[in-house]
Amino acid sequence: MNDNVSPRSHLATFVLSLMLFCTGFGGLHRLYTGHIISGLIQLFTGGGFIIWQVLDIFRICSGTFVDGDGRPVDRE
């Protein structure tokens, strides 16, 4: 496994990022990828009032979203 790429699944991160729209819980993708503090903030603010959540979805789709250690969540 490449040390420069996150071991987290790109698909799981994307699906968890959509949970705000399906269940009302935002930030689950951030908790999954190791961004604990910002994940909790999103969880308690409705995905950062939806704006932050939508920006993260664009970053995940474009491949620029990174995990808590700064490694890109790759689409392998």
Structure characterization notes:
With 76 residues, the protein is mainly α. The protein is 57% helix and 0% strand. It is built from 6 helices and no strands. The chain has helices spanning 10-17, 19-23, 28-32, 36-44, 46-49, 51-62. α1 (10-17) packs antiparallel against α6. The longest helix is centred in the C-terminal third of the chain and has 12 residues, at 51-62. It is globular. The N and C termini lie close together (11 Å). The mean pLDDT is 93.
Which structural class best describes the helix and strand composition? mainly alpha
Number of helices: 6
Question: Strand-and-helix sequence, N→C?
Answer: HHHHHH
Number of strands: 0
Low-confidence stretches: none
Main sheet properties: none
Overall pLDDT score:
93
Q: What gyration radius follows from the Cα positions, in whole Å?
A: 11 Å
Question: What level of helicity do the residues show?
Answer: 55-70%
Give the CA-based shape.
Answer: globular
- First and last CA, distance: 11 Å
Oligomeric state of the chains present here:
single chain
Which band does the percent of strand residues land in? under 5%
